[in-house]
# Entry
Amino acid sequence: MADDESTPTGSRAPTAPEDAALQDALAAAHAAGWGYGVVGAALPVGERGPVDDARQAHRIVRDQVTELLDSRGVDPVGTQAAYTLPFPVLSAVDAAVLALTLEDGVARAWTWVLDQAGERSTRELGVAVLTATELRAVAWRAAAGRTPVTSAFPGLPDS
# Structure
């Protein structure tokens, strides 16, 4: 893997695989931001704090990835007008399961970024985002009544 500090100037490794993975992570951030609107709508007003925090966290990551791709001359993937929900959200438990589904999708995307990343700064961002995603997922698993509430390897298949 090439590191920002160890690669001689002018001979940086191509970042195309990394950029493609970052595009997937950006698309996941867009979907999560939209999906948290649905999560929040299904919860009582007094219980929306974690939803607002999660939406803001995904917006920050979205902006970071957009800026990174822009700086590389890559046109960042845009958001869709709407997304298809994987199931109806009719209760607070459904909302927690949807939030967990969103976080799991983001974790899968960032696991792929970590696999493809050649730049040290991208790996550092990936670890930070994956960690934050799993911390939110733990709370949503608990709210959804899922056990175990932690994942040993966030973003990887269970089996």
